[in-house]
Every structure is written in C-alpha cells, then in structure tokens.
Amino acid sequence: xxxxxxxxxxxxxxxxxxxxxxxxCAQCPVRAECLxxxxxxxxxxxxxxxxxxxxxxxxxxxxxxxxASAGISAA
Length: 75
Prior knowledge:
The chain has three helices and no strands. The chain has about 80 residues and is mainly alpha-helical. The protein is globular. The N and C termini lie far apart (about 30 Å).
C-alpha cells in the first residue's frame, strides 16, 4: 500500500512510499477535499491530501493559528 505503511516499516522504505503516494496526490482532483477531511478528524496515520502525519500536524497548527489571529474558530 502506498498511502499507509506496514508495521515495522523502516525510514528509507517509508520515504520512498510517501514520495510515490504524494506524486499520486499531486495529480488528484480532490486533493484539497481529502486534506480538509483528514485535518478535520484525528487521522493519525497515512498520507492524506498529499501530506504525511507530521506535515498534517504542522498544517493543523498553522490553520489554528491563522484562525485564531482572524478571530474565528478553526475547523
């Protein structure tokens, strides 16, 4: 599977798998919707909307900061 890694996956294999998954995401017509879905839920694993777990956590924090600075609640 490209979008979800197997248990015990080593970093070099993960890097290759994620790069392939992100290449598919880059061409996907619903990438933004997929990412919004993953960010609005506690999706802890896998590649969603072209972002891995760490990247989604960063994006979630960025959106929360942006929403807070605009005076609205983040979704």
